[in-house]
């Protein structure tokens, strides 16, 4: 569910509470936000995509807040800077973040507008062992000039099992923290070069 910027700004005060984060987040840099119960404690939590400071060549950051339960306030739990690709100035290239019904976070990046190679990548992020891990990876692509040149890959990072272009793929299942994830890791399993 996308939260309105005004409500989110009032609710958070947008003051970060960990050493990892900036002192404040300029509300104009918030690209997308979603609420859900990431740690499954019955309270609403928040995840945001935050654009880099203008003039840098960094990618978007992921900020994840958990409700502390005691004071019923959101506290910053994770900041992963320079992690999510996206272009806000061109249609068809903006990233998004969504809450899934199972309490996971879905981060989507894509290129639907430039060049002949069109693609979409989805990371499913879950809260495990008191941290956020990449639980799933999905990648699809197609060539606008060659309809037979397509890729469809989906695998569970935790188990290492999935499918790529209709064929089973398997790798060692592992727990990869969101901060340690590299898109190359998923693309290698999918056979994307």
Explained architecture:
The chain has 193 residues and is mainly beta. It has helices spanning 5-12, 183-190; strands at residues 30-36, 45-50, 60-67, 74-84, 96-99, 105-111, 117-128, 131-143, 146-156, 161-164, 167-170. The protein has a 7-stranded antiparallel sheet with strand order 5-6-7-8-9-10-11, covered by helices on one side. It starts with a helix and ends with a helix.
Précis, in short:
The protein is mainly beta. The protein contains 2 helices and 11 strands, in the order αβββββββββββα.
> Structural class per helix/strand content?
mainly beta
Tell the overall outline. Answer: globular
Distance between the termini: 34 Å
The count of DSSP E runs of length 2 or more, i.e. the number of strands, is: 11
Beta-strand content bin: over 45%
Fraction in helix: under 10%
For this structure, the quaternary state is single chain
Strand order of the largest sheet: 5-6-7-8-9-10-11
CA radius of gyration: 17 Å
Main β sheet profile = 7 strands, antiparallel
- Taken in chain order, the helices and strands follow as HEEEEEEEEEEEH
Count of separate DSSP helical elements: 2
